[in-house]
Write a structure and sequence with these properties.
Elements: H1 2-18, E1 23-24, E2 27-28, H2 54-67, E3 78-81, E4 92-97, E5 103-107, E6 110-114, E7 119-122, E8 133-138, E9 144-148, E10 152-156, E11 159-165, E12 168-169, E13 178-181, E14 185-190, E15 193-201, E16 204-209, H3 216-221, E17 225-230, E18 236-240, E19 243-248, E20 251-255, E21 268-271, E22 277-280, E23 285-288, E24 295-297, E25 314-316, E26 322-325, E27 330-333, E28 338-341, E29 352-357, E30 363-367, E31 372-375, E32 381-384, E33 395-400, E34 406-410, E35 413-418, E36 421-425, E37 435-440, E38 445-450, E39 456-460, E40 465-470, E41 475-480, E42 486-490, E43 493-497, E44 507-508, H4 510-515, E45 525-528, E46 534-537, E47 543-546, E48 549-551, E49 554-556, E50 564-569, E51 575-579, E52 584-590, E53 593-599, E54 610-615, E55 621-625, E56 628-633, E57 636-640, E58 651-658, E59 664-668, E60 671-675, H5 678-681, E61 689-696, E62 699-700, E63 716-722, E64 732-738, E65 741-746, E66 751-754, E67 760-770, E68 775-776, E69 780-786, H6 794-856, H7 866-883, E70 887-894, H8 897-904, H9 906-923, E71 929-934, ...
Parallel strand pairs: 49-53, 75-76
Antiparallel strand pairs: 1-2, 3-31, 4-5, 5-6, 6-7, 8-9, 9-10, 10-11, 11-12, 13-14, 14-15, 15-16, 17-18, 18-19, 19-20, 21-22, 22-23, 23-24, 25-26, 26-27, 27-28, 29-30, 30-31, 32-60, 33-34, 34-35, 35-36, 37-38, 38-39, 39-40, 41-42, 42-43, 43-44, 45-46, 46-47, 47-48, 50-51, 51-52, 52-53, 54-55, ...
Helix pairs in contact: 8-9
């Protein structure tokens, strides 16, 4: 066993060291952008200074590093959607969301709708006449307004309808130039003129210049307009010249330097949850307080050089923090200062073109060439890898220090994370050690368990001095319990530093060695249960210490010995177990018995290997596997994998740790993940299910089409979408068709089809479900009617019935006429056929009897054949037992039969057999059964005869048969016979095989003792 565990650990570690891929399952960690090429420089209408931006980017990045607090020690998981999901153009210009939940993506080559799995492009065939999308806005009807540099469109159904003014196209330039006012009105900045669009009829819109009524002098005083935004009160904010203008109830207020807004070109605006208006230019950000406090400069410290910016994004996250992009980074205002996230954190800062926070709080990042990015787990999940300072990405253990820092035990030594900076804890002995376990010691000491044979080390944190406490082959885990004792699980068994220990050095626990046969047995893990009970896993089963006494409980229902290497203690006293024995187990202790039951895991992790277990203070069970982390919250599962933010799915052995603040650290073979707020991260998704489109054959159906669909053999297809982007991969769509089948079915893919539905009324119902939380979305219903085919119309069916009745009447009349003619003929035919059938029946019965006789009768002697007589024997044995009667079985053999054949020939031998068979058959009782057993042997079955009477009967039978003479070709042949008899008494349990064996043995004795006699087994005497 030691060699097996050592080999497993080292194989896993070496595979991890040599596996250098930096992307998996669609989650891309961006390690460098120096070679990235943005496609924007080649697009029409894009300023040429984009082509030479690299120098400015480097300058700006340097300033940001020096002047702004920089969060460089976290690796944030970002998933990028690109060509493989249908996003054909990766240069994104705008992102928005409609009321149903679809994301709309503007690009340099068309607009796309995203449902969480696939992008649908809208281009020329859908009415889009220019592909460079400059701005997007959703209206109250759920339709999307699409601005391009030359046109303005509104998506009506599945088609883009262009809006014009006096038959002239409306040009929407790049930037924040579309907005929405209360009442469903839409704003658009057409070149430098704001337009207001209102509904004028069903799907009809009219627009007019917003500022047409103000005086020319007042209009000229506000300068050129270049952006707009509508707040929740209906005020319109516009970038005007070098100031910001506020339009309210027909009045214009200019926010300029005198009101705290510096002179600049303000291109992006946002209202936060408190009502404050945020405005930004290329390098400045200002907050205009809703409480009347005026304007406050919130600008990050950046270089002052100005240049034309196409994309100046502003967004507010779910926690009320402001997000904006810069030349090289994503910035986040935390209420006090700006935090910076860039490529060192996995954020594509240089490529950001838009920021958007959806209704669930997911943060989306449009880029200028990388596609659409989703910040997974935002803001409750952060990661660390090589890029943030880990010298080895294989992280085995954690320990929170006394200074709000975190020790990280890696495969290449001990490191410390403090204030978002990773540093080495590098005494000589720790520099390259594989740190498997960490625990607090006394007086500022730190216990360190290693894998490479160094054993248990003690580190003086203040002096950085390390001493070797105990040398063991491999340390798995260190447990510091609530009584102040420290337990070390190692390859050589359990070690402990007890409160009574005066040496201050861990020593072997002798009591556990005795329980394990006084030998070195690996103990891979331990935990502390209620009442200071210590549980220790060993390769020979679990051990327990309670009230100072050790025992070894027996495990029921699992393998023996159970191969568990991971354990977690619950507050209720139960244990959670996992390891080499497949699956997750919960064990309940009762005296000296541990009753284990296997617990169902989520389908996605059903075959996963459990590598780590943690029971946190909330009572949640964290299960680390080689396929991700599952969290059991009082009966409800949540899943954390790479597709929703985990740095890597292969969790390290015992690599789960709960910090003092309740956050959870996860060590993997490719870095560290930190779940900052588990309760927030695992909040159920805002589930939503939508029917994207309905088709019959190749035709897309409208709502009017569904009122009465004509019957058709063409399939009716429903296209489906789950419009929740949090843990989207885990969701599933369920549907049913009321009127056809009311059972909920799981949709395989994004569409379902029904072929040749019969006429009737139907309701298609759809819902999204998260199988881990057992939550479902509201049911989406689409009702429709299918008209029956023409041959099922009522008038057609009535005509069919009348015609059928007339046809039946004619047929009956004709039939009666013909019946009278054919009646006599049929009677004669019936009589003839009846006679023929009776004759056939008689012949069939005779043939059946003949076949039955042939199957059971010996053709030579006309006695029962071997098969038939053995069947009778089995039946009589059963009857004898049920009636508690004696049964006698006799094997009869003709003596010297071979000599008869040799002397007189085989035909004479056959005659002797026939003669003897006839004689025997005439002498036995009517209740006896006689058959040819084989060759010259016969089997006699005598049921219901007492043994003493059977002896007399057999003596008479033998005497008569041996005194007779058989004439063969006028020659007298004297025949003698040997009998072997066996009896079955009521107290015997012999079957037919044993009974025949006894008779055969008696026959053999008769032959051996001179032939021509009767020999019994010992049964007649009562044995």
């Amino acid at each position: 066993m030691p060699s097996r565990m050592t080999t497993e650990l080292h194989i896993r570690r070496r595979v991890m060291e040599h596996f250098s891929c930096r992307c998996s399952a669609g989650v891309v960690h961006l390690w460098a952008f120096s070679s990235m090429k943005t496609p924007l420089h080649a697009s029409p209408g894009i300023p040429s200074n984009r082509r030479n931006a690299l120098g400015l980017v480097l300058i700006a990045y340097t300033w940001l590093l020096l002047l702004v607090p920089h969060i460089q020690s976290q690796q944030f998981p970002v998933r990028f959607y690109a060509n493989e999901t249908g996003l054909a153009n990766l240069a994104i210009t705008a992102v928005t969301q409609d009321p149903k939940g679809y994301l709309w993506i503007g690009t340099e080559n068309g607009v796309y709708r995203f449902d969480g799995s696939h992008f649908q492009r809208f281009g020329t065939e859908d009415g889009l006449r220019q592909f460079y999308v400059s701005s997007l806005q959703a209206d109250d009807d759920g339709n999307i307004w699409v601005g391009t540099t030359g046109h303005l469109f509104r998506l009506s159904g599945q088609y883009l309808v262009e809006l014009k003014d006096a038959n002239q196209p409306l040009s929407i330039w790049q930037g924040q130039n579309l907005g929405k006012l209360p009442g469903g009105r839409i704003l658009a900045m057409v070149k430098r003129e704001p337009y207001l669009f209102q509904k004028s009829g069903k799907d009809q819109w009219t627009g007019k210049p917003l500022l047409a009524t103000i005086a020319a002098a007042e209009r000229s005083s506000i300068g050129g307009l270049h952006s707009l935004f509508a707040d929740r009160k209906g005020n319109i904010w516009m970038g005007c010249g070098k100031a910001v203008c506020q339009w309210s109830a027909g009045n214009i207020t200019v926010w300029s330097a005198s009101r705290g807004v510096p002179e600049d070109t303000w291109k992006s605006m946002l209202q936060d949850r408190h009502g404050s208006i945020w405005i930004r230019s290329a390098y400045r950000t200002v907050e205009i307080s809703a409480a009347g406090g005026g304007a406050v400069d919130r600008s990050p410290s950046t270089p002052s050089e100005e240049r034309e910016h196409l994309f100046l994004s502003l967004a507010e996250d779910a926690n009320g923090r402001i997000l904006q992009s810069s030349d090289t980074s994503l910035l986040r205002w935390d209420g006090q200062q700006w935090q910076i996230f860039n490529r060192n954190n996995g954020i594509p800062g240089e490529a950001l073109s838009s920021l958007f926070v959806d209704r669930e709080g997911n943060v989306w990042m449009g880029t200028g060439g990388l596609g659409l990015g989703q910040w997974l787990g935002y803001p409750y999940l952060e990661n660390w890898t090589f890029a943030q300072g880990l010298k080895n990405e294989i992280v085995w253990s954690f320990l929170s220090d006394r200074h709000a820092g975190m020790y990280l035990g890696t495969d290449s030594g001990l490191q410390r994370l403090h204030d978002n900076t990773i540093s080495d804890v590098d005494p000589h002995e720790l520099g390259k050690a594989e740190i498997a376990g960490l625990a607090d010691g006394d007086a500022g000491n730190l216990w360190v368990g290693t894998m490479g044979g160094t054993g248990i080390l003690r580190l003086d944190e203040a002096r950085g001095k390390i001493t070797q406490a105990t040398k063991t082959a491999l340390v798995f885990h260190i447990l510091h319990d609530t009584t102040g004792q420290t337990w070390f699980t190692t390859m050589q068994g359990l070690y402990a530093l007890r409160s009574s220990n005066t040496t201050g050095m861990p020593e072997p626990v002798i009591e556990t060695r005795h329980l394990l046969g006084d030998r070195d047995v690996p103990t891979p893990n331990a935990c502390e249960g209620p009442s200071h009970t210590i549980w220790v896993l060993s390769d020979l089963g679990p051990l327990r210490m309670h009230d100072g006494a050790w025992d070894k409980p027996e495990v029921k229902n699992a393998s023996n010995p159970p191969r568990f290497s991971q354990i977690a203690c619950s507050p209720d006293g139960t244990l959670w177990l996992g390891g080499e024995t497949p699956g997750l187990w919960q064990a309940s202790p009762a005296n000296s018995i541990l009753t284990a039951n296997r617990i169902s895991m989520p389908d996605d992790l059903r075959d996963a290997h459990i590598i780590a277990l943690l029971m946190d203070r909330r009572g949640w069970l964290w299960v680390g596997t080689d396929m991700g982390v599952a969290v059991l919250d009082h009966g409800h599962w949540s899943l954390l994998r790479q597709d929703n933010g985990l740095v890597w799915p292969d969790v390290s052995q015992a690599g789960l740790y709960e910090d003092r603040d309740g956050s959870v650290w996860i060590g993997t073979s490719k870095g560290v993940s930190h779940v900052v707020a588990p309760a927030s991260l695992f909040q159920p998704a805002m589930l939503s299910a939508e029917v994207v489109a309905i088709e019959r054959g190749e035709k897309t159906l409208s709502a009017n089409d569904l009122i009465a669909l004509p019957w058709s053999k063409s399939p009716l297809t429903f296209y489906l979408a789950a419009l929740s982007y949090k843990d989207h991969a885990h969701q599933r769509l369920l549907y049913r068709l009321i009127g056809f089948d009311e059972t909920w079915q799981t949709a395989e893919g994004e569409k379902v089809q029904f072929t040749a539905l019969p006429g009737g009324s139907y309701s298609f119902e759809l819902k999204a479900e998260d199988p881990f939380t057992n939550k479902s979305s509201p049911v989406t219903t689409v009702s429709f009617t299918v008209r029956p085919p023409w041959w099922r119309r009522l008038d057609v069916q009535i005509a069919e019935i009348i015609a059928l009745l007339l046809l039946i009447a004619g047929i009956i009349r004709l039939w009666l006429h013909r019946l009278l003619i054919q009646r006599r003929k049929l009677e004669n035919m019936v009589a003839e056929r009846t006679y023929a059938l009776e004759e056939e029946k008689r012949l069939l019965t005779q043939a059946k009897l003949s076949l039955q006789q042939m199957a059971t009768t010996d053709s030579l002697t006309k006695l029962r054949n071997r098969h038939a007589i053995l069947e009778i024997l089995d039946l009589e044995i059963s009857q004898a037992r049920s009636k508690q009667q004696d049964l006698v079985v006799v094997l009869i053999d003709i003596d010297h039969f071979k000599q008869i054949n040799d002397t007189y020939g085989h035909l004479a031998g056959d005659e002797v057999l026939r003669s003897v068979a006839q004689t025997l058959d005439g002498l036995v009782r009517s209740s006896d059964h006689l058959g040819r057993y084989g060759g010259e042997e016969f089997l006699l079955v005598m049921p219901g005869i007492p043994i003493d009477m059977a002896q007399g009967r057999l003596d008479d039978l033998h005497r008569q048969i041996t005194s007779s003479v058989v004439l063969v070709d006028d020659k007298a042949v004297h025949v003698t016979m040997s009998f072997g008899a066996a009896a079955l008494r009521p107290f015997h349990s012999f079957d037919s095989k044993e009974l025949l064996h006894q008779a055969d043995t008696a026959l053999y004795l008769a032959k051996e003792t001179g032939r021509n006699r009767i020999v019994w087994t010992s049964y007649p005497s009562g044995d």
